[in-house]
Amino acid sequence: MKPPAVSTWTQKTAPTPDRDIWLSMKRGLRGRCPHCGEGKLFRAFLKVTENCPSCGEELFHHRADDLPAYLVIVIVGHIVVPLALAVETSFAPSVLLQLAIYLPITFISSLLLLQPVKGAVVGLQWACRMHGFDDQSPDDMPVLDAAGGKTPPETR
Ligand SMILES: [Zn+2]
Questions:
Q1: Ligand 1 mean position, distance from CA 53 (Å)
Q2: Which of 20, 50, 87, 133 is the most buried (most CB within 10 A)?
Q3: Do the Cβ atoms of 47 and 56 come closer than 8 Å?
Q4: Per residue in 25-41, pLDDT tens?
Q5: Where are the beta strands (DSSP E) in 44-145?
């Protein structure tokens, strides 16, 4: 018996299972695949692996770009600046002593936060099915080329 015909529209608009945003971001924060939570997300310090070594999920679709760096600046700035103001108003140490304390704190905490924050951003993009993470996206959607221009589907 032949299965009932399903229109292309129905196939492309079928509901997709929800992805838990907070769980995906937490897994990314730990440097793990947002899909399975087992495979490593990074193949180098800030290089996201192409596919999860554990479940095979495609991870190259992410476009974190500069967002992790901006978020790290916001986080570190909200820690170091109030600390510097509190120490300055209470103790007024010399400028050299303050530079010797705050510059290493800023540098080291930024390096420590960059990978986890990028992992969380990749997890967020995966959970929200952004960029290429939606396996149900229509084939006739224009794709962005490397320069950011749209390529119409008929020329692909
Ligand atoms: Zn995985």
A1: 7
A2: 133
A3: no
A4: 999 999 999 999 999 99
A5: 143-144
Compute, in angstroms, the gap from residue 29 CA to the centroid of ligand 1. Answer: 14
pLDDT tens string 36-67: 999 999 999 999 999 999 999 999 999 999 99
Distance (Å) from CA 56 to ligand 1 centroid: 6
Cβ-count burial of 35 within 10 angstroms (0-12 exposed, 13-18 middle, 19+ buried)? Answer: buried
Is there a contact between 1 and 89 (Cβ–Cβ < 8 Å)?
no
Token pair 């960059």 is found at 114
- How many whole angstroms from 32 Cα to the centroid of ligand 1? 8
What pTM was estimated for this model as a whole? 0.77
